Amino acid sequence: MNGWGPPTGAWRSVDEMNNGFAIGSILDEMAVAAGVDVVEVYRELYADQLLPVVELAAEKAGWGSALPEGWGAG
Fold it and tell me: Is residue 18 left, alpha or beta, with left meaning phi > 0 and alpha meaning psi from -120 to 50?
């Protein structure tokens, strides 16, 4: 990803939370369309900043575990 990542910063401005959700949703959809694991995309994007957070979130969510038929993870 060449060191690029979504900007991080204060969440107290107008629409910042909505923008973060939109950016994350688009990144997820792009990863799925490209056949790339979504968590791998976030590992690359946040390798210099928040990698421990990404790893902990993936672990707590059980990312990569089998799900019942008809269920998904996000």
Answer: alpha
Look at the block and give the residue holding tokens 């421990």: 52
Collapsed DSSP state (helix, strand, coil) of residue 54: helix
Residue-wise pLDDT tens digits, 20-73: 788 889 998 999 999 999 899 989 888 888 888 889 988 998 888 888 899 877
Angle made by CA atoms 24, 16, 32, in degrees to the nearest 5 = 5
Query: Please, are residues 31 and 41 in contact by the beta-carbon 8 Å criterion?
Result: yes
Task: Report the C-alpha dihedral over residues 16, 57, 38, 29, rounded to 10 degrees.
Answer: -40
